[in-house]
Amino acid sequence: MPAALPASIPDPLGHTPARRRIALVSSVYDELVEAYPAWWVDLLGEQNHVGGIESTKWLFARSGLHPGDRALDAGAFVGGAARFLASEGVRAVALDLGRDFLAAGHRMDGGASVDWVAGLTQRLPFSEDAFRSAWCMDSYIAPRELSRVLQPGGTICLCCEVPVDSRGGVEAFIEEWRELGFDLTAHKQLSLEATQAWRAAETELVRRRPHFQERYGQRGYIAQLDMVTDLVQAYERGELGHGLFVFTKG
Ligand SMILES: C[S@@+](CC[C@H](N)C(=O)[O-])C[C@H]1O[C@@H](n2cnc3c(N)ncnc32)[C@H](O)[C@@H]1O
What confidence tens digit (pLDDT) does each residue in 125-177 have? Predict the structure, then answer.
């Protein structure tokens, strides 16, 4: 990965400092894309969850976070949410099992203001009550472990898939958090947005088949397309839904 150009070094492309920063940031993400042939890295971008930055802002507005509070972004990828929180004055920690994702995030816009930690969400390397808010956006959710590191009165902010079938679906999901001592304080349906996002990904994989087939290999391409097609069908059959949730710890 190229090192960031110090401001004193003239940019060979003649960019102004602001343009240069944007060019460097996008080149960091582009290099990550190059190194990780996976449909979700290729097609969802650095705010790698349904609804993008708007979902991040929606959760932040309801998270109860204030400047100086500590927040955890679990399964952070390149820390799209963590870097946004840091830009709002929050002391953000980004945790992910992928060290390369963390290294890229550290070099992206706002990355220097975030603490980057390699680890698993189900075994968080933090003490009890370490955070005012714990976030998990389209990543593995470990309710007990996220609850353990959260202060009383703190919030869990989720962007996630939820079952919506006739067996209870979203109610069962909410009930599980209630049993852990949480109240649901905000919820937004994102099932339509998710269905559209997965359909768009499927369309893109098919439209640019030669490109993706070369990138993933023939079997890899079929596997990735199958994955996205299964997702689209599960959403279209009404078996899966997506949503934003804020739970507050009692
Ligand atoms: C779809 S990406 C979402 C990234 C990020 N939350 C966002 O919204 O931009 C899922 C991320 O979760 C990470 N992940 C998956 N399982 C994990 C686990 N058990 N512990 C920590 N990270 C995990 C993956 O490495 C990946 O970076």
Answer: 999 999 999 999 999 999 999 999 999 999 999 999 998 866 568 888 999 99
Mutate to test the pocket of ligand 1, among 29, 77, 114, 160 (most ligand atoms within 8 A of CB): 77
**Residue type at 147 in one-letter notation:** S
**Rounded distance between C-alpha atoms, residue 152 and residue 2, angstroms:** 43
Q: Kindly report the pTM of this predicted structure.
A: 0.89
Beta carbon of 22 within 6 Å of any ligand 1 atom: no
56 in contact with ligand 1, CB cutoff 6 A: no
Name the residue ranges covered by the structural domains of the chain.
1-35, 51-189+240-249, 193-236
For the domain made up of 51-189+240-249, give the CATH fold. Rossmann fold (3.40.50)
Site of tokens 């929050």 = 90
Q: Whose CA is closest to 173, among 73, 88, 245?
A: 245
